[in-house]
Specification:
Helices cover about 60% and strands about 10% of the residues. It has helices at about 5-30, 40-50, 60-65, 75-85, 85-90, 100-125, 130-140, 145-150, 155-170, 175-190, 195-205, 210-235, 245-255, 265-275, 280-290, 290-310, 325-340, 345-370, 375-385, 405-410, and strands at about 400, 420-425, 440-445, 450-465, 475-485. A five-stranded mixed beta sheet has the order 2-1-3-5-4. A hairpin with a 6-residue loop joins strand 4 and strand 5 (about 475-485). Residues about 390-395 and about 490-500 have low confidence and may be disordered.
Length: about 500
């Protein structure tokens, strides 16, 4: 006898309801802010090239713009393979390539959220359904984890493996925990070593795993992951290379990462964690006092952030892999407060917690609005595509020069249109020389360029300002990007000019 539709839908929601909540929020972020920034540029350009150029390596972006240090192609290959069935459909329907970027970001989000689902299942088995529910609520109320989970950063690719490690940690499968962390370290982010060290040390001190067994697991995972990345990336970079070793040498040995700015030693604890965790920040610390099991997972995470604080260059994305486990610690505390809400002291704590939930939601909305306005170059180029009628002929080619600032703030190869559009992000051209190069359009950060007239400008997020009245926080914007058109256009550029 077939099951009633109500029972089927109820069972589906019971199994996948939390995934639908988190997935819907992540997808909303993708559709509302599809563009990417410089931190994501390598993997974004690599995914584009794998999907559209395939085996024609000479056309790949990384050979012309290699960046400061090499990165691995393994994550780009994985996501591109999963997204490859969608691209022919996009091309067949005549949609612009920006839909391809949406597709690869949605695929990446599905991969990361599926690993979070595995971690969440282990939370349910160890701590119960209520802690799992609070874990989902805390994650949904936070901005950064769900916003970043669809962005192809090396930190996010590593996060997927870290989530699997966390899940195996709760399952007490310590060998798999160490193996996943080693793969993440050697292929995607060498700094996961700062997480692997405290976790591995705790395993040995608590005798959770024999040293010999841990050594065998670590060596096996290290040999396989190192061999894989060297084999794949040496082919793609056309030289013998182990990308994450070069990153480690650049950042840690040479300490060159400080050239991109430095922050005080307390920055992760006073800025990054409060912004990323929100209400989970105080709850996570409370959870260590309320449940002995939480202390054993909290201390290695705390050590990870403390060790990372020693490096002068700091960014929130560097410690984003700690957020899921901090959320577990917070969920345990939230569940305990909720269960005891009828007692006098706990009732007050419950009211404060509910107020912090509302405040967290407001902070997330504000942060999203700021991020939505943080990709001015992508919006400017899209507006140019839709408003330009240059040449008054289908045969007229439109040559667009994109300067370094514009390329870093929203533009990638996924933003390109087909003929008659042509693109260049050639660097080092003096401003006064641009009119001699016969570019049809310029997308850059300069308000005035000799030989060009400004068509329009695009504003971007500047800062948050507090004010009396409602709303208490105002987002201020300022002009970031200008689009210029050449006063006298000559189609003299070579047709085989490569895109950006």
């Amino acid at each position: 006898m077939p099951m009633p539709m109500g029972s089927i839908s109820s069972k589906f929601l019971q199994s996948y309801g939390y995934d639908l909540i988190l997935g819907s929020i992540a997808a909303f972020y993708v559709f509302m802010a599809p563009y990417t920034k410089v931190e994501e540029s390598f993997n974004v350009q690599s995914m584009h090239d794998i999907l559209y150029y395939r085996h024609h390596l000479n056309s790949y972006d990384h050979l012309e713009f290699p960046g400061v240090v090499p990165r691995t192609f393994i994550g780009a290959f994985l996501v591109s393979i999963l997204a490859s069935p969608v691209v022919p459909i996009i091309n067949l329907l005549g949609f612009p390539k920006i839909y391809g970027l949406v597709a690869v970001r949605l695929v990446l989000g599905c991969v990361i959220l599926s690993t979070l689902r595995f971690f969440r299942f282990q939370i349910r088995k160890v701590f119960g359904h209520q802690v799992e529910a609070f874990f989902v609520l805390l994650t949904a109320l936070q901005f950064h984890l769900l916003f970043y989970c669809t962005r192809p950063l090396p930190n996010i690719l590593a996060l997927g493996l870290v989530n699997l490690a966390y899940g195996n940690w709760l399952r007490r499968n310590f060998c798999s925990t160490l193996s996943f962390l080693i793969v993440a370290t050697l292929i995607f982010r060498c700094d996961i070593l700062l997480l692997l060290g405290p976790i591995g040390l705790e395993f040995l001190l608590t005798r959770s795993i024999p040293f010999c067994k841990a050594f065998k697991c670590c060596v096996g995972a290290a040999v396989l992951s190192t061999g894989l990345t060297i084999f794949v990336d040496s082919i793609m970079w056309r030289r013998f290379v182990w990308p994450e070793f070069e990153v480690f040498w650049f950042n840690s040995i040479l300490n060159r990462s400080s050239e991109w700015g430095t922050s005080p030693i307390h920055w992760y604890f006073t800025s990054a964690l409060p912004r990323s965790l929100l209400v989970a920040y105080p709850l996570a610390m409370l959870g260590t006092l309320l449940d002995r099991r939480v202390a054993f997972v909290f201390l290695p995470l705390l050590s990870f952030v403390v060790l990372y604080s020693k490096l002068p260059h700091k960014e929130l994305r560097f410690i984003i892999s700690s957020v899921p486990m901090f959320n577990l610690c917070a969920a345990v505390a939230a569940s305990r407060i909720y269960n005891n809400r009828k007692k006098t002291l706990w009732r007050l704590m419950n009211i404060v917690m509910l107020g912090l939930f509302i405040l967290s939601a407001g902070c997330t909305i504000t942060t999203f609005m700021a991020s939505y306005n943080n990709y001015p170059s992508g919006y400017a180029l899209e507006r140019l595509h839709h408003t330009s009628h240059s040449g008054n002929s289908a045969e007229a080619q439109c040559w667009v020069h994109i300067d370094t600032f514009a390329a870093m703030n929203g533009i990638s190869r996924f933003c390109e249109y087909a003929f008659p559009w042509r693109y260049s992000k050639e660097e080092g051209i003096p401003l006064e020389e641009l009119h001699k190069r016969n570019f049809t359009y310029l997308v850059n950060e300069h308000a005035f360029v000799d030989g060009y007239k400004c068509l329009f400008s695009e504003a971007g997020f500047s800062r948050l300002r507090l004010q009396h009245g409602f709303p208490p926080i105002v987002l201020e914007k300022e002009v970031k990007v200008y689009v210029h058109e050449k006063r006298k256009m000559k189609n003299t550029m070579p047709k085989e000019w490569s895109g950006c």
